[in-house]
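Hi P.,

Sorry for the delay on this. The queue was packed all week, but I finally got your sequence through. Input first:
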Amino acid sequence: MTSTLRQQLQSSGWQERTLPGFIQTAGPLWTLREPDGWTYGMLFDHQHLNPAARVHGGALMTLLDHAMSTTAWEACGRTPCVTLQMDTQFVGAVSAGQFAQARARVTHQTRGMVFLQGSIEVDGSPVVLAQAILKILATHSPAR
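Then the structure:
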């Protein structure tokens, strides 16, 4: 990422995150706190491309799954949730050098499941739409 783009993102309120696990390998991940929730972003580069020279669908799904699971986690009082199903529709392409923004919202919640809708946009145009079902994991209780 160029230092100019990094400065533009930071001056717009975006923060680069260092998180453990796969998302750090896939990223880096950027976050922006907005009045209606969090937005997650990634600047895609050549290592994210498929043989057709577009960002690999799996890379886009990784960003969207992170946005959905974090949104579910917050909706459940920071209880871990895991993705059971994610239905994804690719409606556009992303190229190297483009910054993609993912958002998610809870549409329904039960005691054991969270249902969400999410999207990824580049320059205000949708490129991925999705619906997901996440399972709320039981909190760990200490051994007796």
